[in-house]
Amino acid sequence: MAKFLHLSSTQSTNDDAYALARQGAEHGFGVLADIQLAGKGRLGKAWYSTPGTGLTCSIIVRPKLPFIEFPKLTLTAGLALCKALEGLFPALPFGLKWPNDLYCRGRKCGGILVEAAPPTHAGKEGFAVVGIGLNVNALLEDFAPELQCRATSLRILSGVSQDIESLYHRVHGSLLKCLGRHEDLGFADILREWRRRDILLGKTMKWLTSGRKVIVAQALGPDDNGQLLARDASGKVHEILSGDVQLAE
Ligand code: BTN
């Protein structure tokens, strides 16, 4: 069984895993925490996990890929998380929202934050930390009031509680398997499956650009590099590298 560290409480498992990776922790090593006090989300947002009820973990990967390919790992990890849960709950309609969100029945159930370190001049390989936050055993009232209309958990969706460590091993296995496919068969193989789970495809969405401009456009799905394409009302196709995208109401 792959090695991991299970902490009762920490600031951010991504920060812990990053520090351990810098000290040489191996590919596949994971950090899992029951309580995370300063969880980080994408775009500098915070990730709040209800204490003791979620899967809050970070897995170190040392991909056999050029560093320029590392941004694609967010999609690879999202697919891995989705597939792990589909195996456990075949009847639940999980989907992926570009670039890093796991959804089910219109609500967010989990998210991915990948943080990467490039190879060094001293010859050290690059690595990435795949942070996964998944709402597992929370009830609706466990979420902050402002999240109660947008969030869900595996327990709310399925009616059953899960053992967090078992879930961690399932997700860990799926991540390393998807990463192996990415390395051996290429990103196109990941994208083929990712696109089938794309919840934005064809929908009208609002894109908040990094320059804080709001663009309303139809989502065309990720291109071959994993960047989201979207067509605005004038017919212009935008290639979205970053920024926030939301379904338009
Ligand atoms: C997002 O939805 O924006 C991504 C959320 C990722 C949260 C996870 S929880 C475990 C790991 N540690 C962190 O600080 N963040 C990630």
Describe this structure in words.
The radius of gyration is 18 Å and the shape is globular. Helices cover 25% and strands 31% of the residues. A seven-stranded mixed beta sheet has the order 1-2-3-7-6-5-4. It has a five-stranded antiparallel beta sheet with strand order 11-10-9-8-12, with no helix packed on it. By secondary structure, the protein is of the alpha+beta class. The protein starts with a strand and ends with a strand. It is built from five helices and twelve strands.
Q: What best-fitting shape do the alpha-carbon axes yield? A: globular
Q: Helix content range of the residues, please? A: 25-40%
Q: Report the β-strand fraction as a percent range.
A: 25-35%
Count up the helices: 5
Adjacency order of strands in the biggest sheet: 1-2-3-7-6-5-4
Pairing-aware structural class of the strands and helices? alpha+beta
List cofactors, ions and other ligands: biotin
Rg estimate, integer Å: 18 Å
Uncertain stretches: none
End-to-end gap:
45 Å
Question: Can you count the beta strands?
Answer: 12
Q: Taking all residues together, what is the mean pLDDT?
A: 95
Q: Give the H and E element order.
A: EHEEHEEEEHHHEEEEE
The main β sheet shows up as: 7 strands, mixed
Summarize the structure.
With 249 residues, this protein is an alpha+beta fold. Helix content is 25%, strand content 31%. The strands form two sheets. A seven-stranded mixed sheet has the order 1-2-3-7-6-5-4.
